[in-house]
Design goal:
Largest sheet of chain A: 8 strands, mixed
Number of helices of chain B: 10
Structural class of chain B: alpha/beta
Distance between the termini of chain B: 29 Å
Distance between the termini of chain A: 27 Å
Oligomer: heterodimer
Number of strands of chain B: 12
Bound molecules: adenosine-5'-triphosphate, iron/sulfur cluster, magnesium ion
Helix content of chain A: 25-40%
Strand content of chain A: 25-35%
Number of helices of chain A: 11
Radius of gyration of chain B: 21 Å
Number of strands of chain A: 15
């Protein structure tokens, strides 16, 4: 299952690689094609932003990598590769490739990976903090599950990690229940819990969306600080382009179940290539721009995931579409710059079969 | 120039010393154990045809202020004067239910959540027609025509009127809410976070629509939001609230580029700018927002304020006009040189 690969054959600097991932939800209303061929590279030790409109598949992408796709969803195609460093007896470390798509989602292998190597902060803090246990008990449980230590040591670690998460009075907070904390403090507790086992990838699903700007700024600072200190990769899911610009090293833009552009953060904001990315950046008001220029909305509506769209999923709203091509075939992912890829027929003639 | 120089005819709304307190109850006997000072002394005026932005963090009292101004909530104290097109200046806080009924059509509200603010069991036609029916403005075919007109005004097809809200996207539902608010030809519309629940690409459509309607129907907006870039875009003037009080009120440009209250400065610095080359954030605001049940002594902002001096914990600053039509509630508003948004 876990195939060993020398670092020469593994992609340089990646911790996770997702290729052509399809996740469908088989519901009574029909099939929702939540992910329809997602390809995404997550570099080790960096912050990768995932942006896109509501329903485009950001959360499902993270859940799929964690192998936590809820019923009635299923991975129907594609692969998710995790690259982990393993120490060998002779002191050399080698990179091992684990195909997460092959694992039993309830099996022991993924359970040992989850929490320890892949951790997640969920979109709804109250769904991932159990209201009937204290904050301390919940963090200790996470620690005891993956690390061998006594309860006393686990409690000390819990206080310590809460303190690192900037929690005021961590010794008393460990005895508090989630509802006794403010939104910002709850988010700090969630971060502490997720980081308690020093994962190599942290998925943060809209970790600041429910917070005020000043609290959001505090949490973003904290995440940056911890990320630098612990050297983990963060996958930062958000729909706020401001947060992406402030937080991320590289950005994946999703539209209707696909990654349509992935690039380092500067080219993404200064030289966006995909028509959707360009339109998105034009549609938002920029604070401090001093202009009252009319906003330029993206025309049309976000399509319904139950509908099937022939061709490029963005073509019904796109100003550059090429009839006979964009409405017929799905563009292949094309390299347009260093670590910069885009899926659009403006950059390639090559298409993929609709899948 | 100060406010007295503004012609009374130019104003639509003039609010003074507005307070709205809620009891905090606890235990089986629901004994009152404290008071939430949700709105704690708000002064503001609104000119005809302008958009006044109202910003501040969650729980600072924006919604309560808006609802109290419309007398959807009974104020605890203060004066709410409204310049009714027929009746002239009236004091809303003193009006009876019947008297209010005559003024109400001129004041409407658009709610934040397009998913829960529309009754799911009513067709779009009934939702939009409801205020027209209640106020006996139209019935029969005339009513239907009016609903069709309103749908066209907000950019939707009249054929949609027989559908139910669930058949529409968030942006479309927000348009339906706007159509209903417009039904009675109001003068003042309080927009309570009208685009917060919408995707960014849809936000722009709704903001443009609100701007077009304002020009077309000479509407006045109080625009409540916490997204400072949206507020900058749409507002002529902006009021910043902190723990139930307005701490600064000025024209949008002055407030964003030459703020006079330390909280406004910190708020502006915290906005995440969509520009990866501007990551510097010189001002960081520590701590958490104070509780409106137990606000700090003196200036409510003093425990978090980097400029606080001894007087700040002892004396509450008054809300005053620091430069013409630029108001702030800070002891040092005249002398501080604060940073605005860096564009
Ligand atoms: N449990 C489920 N049953 C059916 N469909 C689902 C389920 N969970 C997600 N989906 C579908 O998968 C698609 C992607 O959802 P996802 O939650 O990943 O979106 P998102 O990009 O995270 O959106 P948001 O910004 O609103 O959080 C959606 O169209 C959604 O309808
Ligand atoms: N009916 C009520 N009873 C008791 N307290 C209330 C009531 N309504 C509001 N409050 C309290 O009054 C304060 C102000 O609330 P309000 O909803 O006006 O804030 P807001 O600025 O609109 O916040 P948000 O940005 O979260 O919408 C809060 O502390 C809130 O808990
Ligand atoms: S592929 Fe065609 S429709 Fe899709 S974004 Fe590119 S130009 Fe537009
Ligand atoms: Mg999501
Ligand atoms: Mg509110």
């Amino acid at each position: 299952m876990a195939k060993q690969a020398g670092s020469s054959t593994t992609p340089e600097g990646l911790v996770v690689r997702v290729r052509d991932l399809h996740v469908y939800f088989f519901t009574d209303l029909g099939v929702s094609r939540a992910l329809n061929g997602v390809s995404l590279d997550i570099p080790a030790g960096k912050v990768t932003g995932v942006v896109g409109e509501s329903g485009c598949g950001k959360s499902v992408t993270a859940l799929s990598i964690m192998r936590l796709v809820p019923h009635p969803g299923r991975i129907t195609k594609g692969e998710i590769l995790l690259y982990r460093e393993r120490e060998k007896q002779n002191g050399h470390s080698i990179v091992e490739e684990v195909n997460l798509t092959d694992l039993d989602p309830q099996g022991p292998v993924i359970r040992s990976i989850r929490g320890a190597e892949l951790a997640m902060i969920f979109q709804e803090p109250m769904t991932s903090l159990n209201p009937s246990y204290t904050i301390g008990d919940q963090i200790m449980e996470a620690i005891l599950l993956h690390q061998q230590c006594t309860r006393k040591e686990a409690e000390e670690r819990a206080v310590d990690i809460l303190a690192r998460a900037g929690m005021p009075n961590p010794q008393t907070v460990v005895r508090r229940y989630p509802h006794e904390l403010s939104g910002g403090m709850r988010q700090r507790a969630m971060i502490a819990m997720a980081l308690s086992c020093t994962p190599s990838v942290l998925f943060a699903d809209e970790p600041t969306t429910a917070l005020d700007v000043t609290t959001e700024a505090q949490i973003l600072d904290l995440m940056r600080e911890l990320q630098a200190a612990m050297g983990m990769a963060i996958v930062f899911i958000t729909h706020n382009l401001g947060v992406v610009a402030q937080m991320c090293d590289t950005v994946a833009v999703m539209y209707l179940g696909r990654v349509v552009e992935q690039a380092p953060v500067e080219p993404l904001f200064y030289d966006p290539q995909h028509p959707y990315t360009r339109a998105l950046l034009r549609s938002i008001p920029h604070v401090g721009s001093r202009t009252k220029a009319r906003l330029q909305p993206i025309r049309g509506v976000v399509p319904d995931p139950y509908a099937t769209i022939e061709g490029c999923p963005f073509h019904p709203r796109c100003d550059y579409r090429k009839p006979g091509l964009c409405d017929v075939r799905v563009p292949a992912t094309t390299q347009v710059g260093e670590n910069h890829t885009v899926r659009c027929f403006l950059y390639t003639e090559q298409g993929e079969d609709n899948g | 120039m100060d406010k007295a120089d503004l012609m009374q005819q130019e104003l639509l709304l003039d609010v003074k010393g507005l307070k709205k307190y809620f009891p905090v109850q606890s235990g089986l006997l629901r004994r009152t154990v404290g008071t939430v000072r949700a709105v704690d002394g708000v002064d503001l005026f609104v000119r005809k045809g302008e958009t006044l932005g109202l910003v501040g963090e969650s729980g600072c009292g924006k919604t309560t202020a808006g609802r109290t101004i419309l007398r959807l909530l009974q104020p605890t104290a203060g004066e709410i004067r409204f310049n009714d097109p027929k009746l002239g200046w009236v004091n809303l806080e003193r009006m009876s239910r019947q008297e209010l009924a005559a003024v109400r059509p001129n004041m409407q509200i658009i709610f934040q959540d397009p998913f829960s603010s529309l009754n799911p069991r009513m067709t779009v036609e009934r939702i939009i027609a409801e205020p027209l029916v209640i106020n006996k403005v139209a019935k029969g075919q005339e009513l239907k025509d009016r609903v069709a007109d309103l749908l066209r005004v907000v950019g939707m097809r009249p054929e949609y009127m027989s559908r139910y809200p669930h058949a529409f996207s968030g942006g479309q539902r927000q348009r339906i809410g706007i159509a209903r608010a417009l039904a009675l030809n109001p003068k003042l519309i309080i927009c309570d976070e009208p685009v917060s629940a919408l995707d960014v690409s849809i936000q722009a459509q709704v903001l443009n629509l609100l701007e077009d309607l304002q020009a077309q129907f000479d509407l006045t907006y109080i625009f409540i939001a916490h997204d400072l870039s949206v507020v900058e875009h749409i507002s002529d003037r902006v009021a910043v609230m902190y723990v139930g009080q307005i701490v600064e009120l000025a024209s949008t440009d002055e407030l964003y580029y030459t703020p006079k209250h330390p909280y406004t400065e910190a708020l502006m610095a915290a906005v995440p700018k969509p520009d990866p080359r501007r990551r510097d954030r010189p001002i960081k605001l520590p701590g958490e927002v104070a509780s409106p049940v137990n606000p700090p002594s003196g200036c409510y902002f003093h425990p978090r304020c980097r400029y606080a001096k001894e007087v700040c914990s002892k004396e509450a600053p008054v809300f005053r006009e620091v430069t013409p039509l630029h108001y702030a509630r800070c002891h040092f508003a005249d002398e501080l040189k604060l940073r605005g948004v860096v564009g």
